[in-house]
Amino acid sequence: MNISKYKNIYQLTFARYLFPINCFVIERENDLVVIDMGLKNFNKEIVKLQRSTGKNVSMLLLTHAHSDHVNGTNTFRKYFKNAEIGISKRESYLLNGDMRLLKDESQNKIRGGFSRGIIHTDFTFEEGDVFDSIQVINTPGHTPGSVSFYLPANRSIIVGDAFQTKGRPAVSGDLNITFPFPALATWDKKTALNSAYKIKELHASSLFCGHGHFIIHPEKEINQAIKHLEKKLL
């Protein structure tokens, strides 16, 4: 397990050289907020962060329902009994096994792996919702209900699989042969590209992804990743 930090965001990474899976912990004034929980192993490390910071975990927010982002959720509940767990309203259908597409959505097949067990959440959220210092932004494409979490105080954004940085920075759906899995699990590439535009317009000072290292001042990498997918689609 590797732990790195930028400002008030801890990135916990499992198997960073082979198949990196990231979990994030945001340290706020009075508590800790966890973003994504792909593996139960993350929980023991988060307990250590509670001890070192003197702050308790209050919440787990999920970017999307793929198993490598939610499989540790039930174990999380055992460790942090007072914390609440949330996922976007649209993505909650996928988490519960309902793969039907809405009329206004691309009718491409939903891809990727989903947990076989039941994962209980406490609440859902939508774009525009704010959890104190954390803003919810809809960034569909990888899945229909994928979201990102923006921290305006330091202009950091946690994007789930809307981008990846393992291998090279890439928009979800853009096949990177050195780490192809996010692309292979993407539902709709054009929707993902539109979400990349949306993320670009935030002019974030740091970019955190579900797979790979975080990037400080990521404007160049975001632009290059967008142009790479544009050439394939436009």
UniProtKB/TrEMBL annotation:
Chain ranges of the Metallo-beta-lactamase domain: 20-211
Coiled-coil ranges (or none): none
CDD domains: yflN-like_MBL-fold
This protein's name: MBL fold metallo-hydrolase
Highest taxon in the source lineage: Bacteria
